[in-house]
Amino acid sequence: MARETEFTDANLTQEDLEALDIGNFDYVRFTIADINGVSRTKMIPREHVQKFLHSGVSMYMGTLAFGVSGDITPLKESKLTGHMNGLARPMPGTIHRLPWASSKADVKIGQFLCETFWAKSYKDGAHQAACPRYVARKQLDRLKSLGYTLYSSFETEFCVYEKDRETPINTEHAMLSGILTDRHGDLLCDIESQLRKSGVDLQVLHPEYGHGQIEMALQPSFGIATVDQMFRLKDGVKAIAYRDGKIASFMTKPVFSDMGSGLHYNHSVWSNDSQTNAFYDPEKPDGLSTVAKSWIAGLVKHAPAITALCSPTVNCYRRLHSLMAPTNASWGIEDRTSAYRVKNHGPKETYVENRLASGAANPYLVMAATVAAGLDGIINNLDCPPAEQSEEALPLAKSLEQSLEFLEHDDVITGALGEEFVRWFTLLKRETEIVKTKEFDFSSKEAFEKEKEIYFQSV
C-alpha cells in the first residue's frame, strides 16, 4: 500500500526519487481524478519517466472539468489563457502497479496519482484549486491543525452486466446469496486478487440486493490513502470486468425500478498520533463524545449542501428518497433510513456512516465535503439535534439543480472548498449534464434512458 502523505505544497523529494524503482515498470501512467472522479491519464515509456518526475506532464488546463461524455466546460480561465496546458504532477508515495492494464505477461505498467497545476505563466504555477485530490487534502490539513486525523473507509456498490449493457449477470434479488457468490466467484476473486496486487485492500465483498449488484468494502486507513484506493478500485473493477467479458457500471441507478447503488463513507476522527478515537467516550450513555456530537451536528447542518457533492449526477436523485436511502438531514444509531448512520461499538468501532453518497460520486469530494461539514461542527461547538427522524429535519434536494443551489447558498461549505472549485463544479454539472436532461419529465422512462446514455459507462 502506498504510504500516506499529507502536504499542502506537495512535490517529490529526493528521498522519494531514491525510493522509486522505475525499472520495475515498462510504462508509467501519470493519472488525475477529474471533478467527476473519472481518471484522465498519460502513459510514459520507462526511458522517459525520469524527466517528468519533478515538472509533471503537460495536460489541457480544463481537463478537470471535462464532462462525463467528454464535453468541454466553458470555463472563464479557458478564455483568459487561450486554452493553455497545465501540468499533472506526481504526488509522493502514490506509485503502484496496474496488473490489469496489459494482457501481456511481460509488460508491466505502473501509475502515479497526480494533482494538477497551472503553467508557470499563469498564477505562478500554483495548484489548480479545483483539483479534487487537492481539495480533499486541504480539508485533512485543516483537521490536522486541530490535532486530529481521519480514519475512514468506503463501501461501494456497482452493477455488473453482460457486454450488451442490458443484461445484468443475475436478476434475482438475492442479497448475500451463496449461490450467486459461487456463480460469480471467478470474477469476484479476480477483482480482489488484482486489486490487492495494486495495493487496494478489500475487506469484504458480496452480492447485494439489486440486479447484478455487488458490494465491496475497503479496509479502513488514515488520511488520503483510503480515497486513493477507492479511486483506483473504480478503474480496476471496470477494467477487470471488461477483460472478463462484462461491463461494470457505477451509475447510481442503472435499472429504472430497482435498488440504487451507494458509496457509503465510514469515518471517525482520531488523535494525530492515530492512537485515540476522538468519537468515543465510555462515560457517555451512548458512547459518543462531545467531539462526535459536534461533528454530527455539522454534518446535519450542511447535509442539503453537501448532497450536491455526494450525489453529483441527475440520476443520483432516483436513489435518494427511496427505500433505505436518505430523505432528510437526520442521524440515528444503527438507523439505515438516516443520512448519517452512527455505530457505537467501543473505542475502535465508533464511527459515522455518511449515507448521502451515491455510487457515481467522486470519493475525493465525498471526503472533502464530509470533513468540511464536520469541522464546522467542531470549530463552532454546534449543538447536535436528537438522534431521530423528525418533521423539523431539513429536507434533501429532489434534483441535482436544487442540490447545486443549496451548495451555492452555504457559505461555510463553499468557503472551505474554495471559489474556483465550486464555480467549476456547478458550471460543469449544469452545462454538461442538467442541460441534456431538463427537457424530459424526471419521472418518465425517456428521462431515465437519457441518463443511462450519459452515465452507464462513464462515471
Ordered list of secondary-structure elements with their pairings:
Elements: H1 14-19, E1 27-33, E2 39-45, H2 46-49, E3 57-60, H3 76-81, E4 85-90, E5 96-97, E6 109-117, H4 132-145, E7 148-162, H5 178-183, H6 185-197, E8 202-207, E9 213-218, E10 221-222, H7 225-243, E11 246-249, E12 263-271, H8 290-310, E13 331-333, E14 340-344, E15 350-354, H9 363-379, H10 400-408, H11 411-417, H12 419-437, H13 445-455
Parallel strand pairs: 1-6, 13-14
Antiparallel strand pairs: 1-2, 3-4, 4-6, 5-6, 7-9, 7-10, 7-11, 7-12, 8-9, 12-15, 14-15
Helix pairs in contact: 4-9, 6-7, 8-9, 8-10, 9-11, 10-12
Class inferred from helices and paired strands:
alpha+beta
| Spatial extent as radius of gyration | 21 Å
Number of helices: 13
Strand content: 15-25%
Largest sheet, strands/sense/barrel: 9 strands, mixed
Shape: globular
Helical content class:
25-40%
Q: What is the terminal-to-terminal distance? A: 25 Å
Poorly predicted runs of 5 or more residues: 1-9
String of helices and strands: HEEHEHEEEHEHHEEEHEEHEEEHHHHH
Say how many strands there are: 15
Mean pLDDT metric: 93
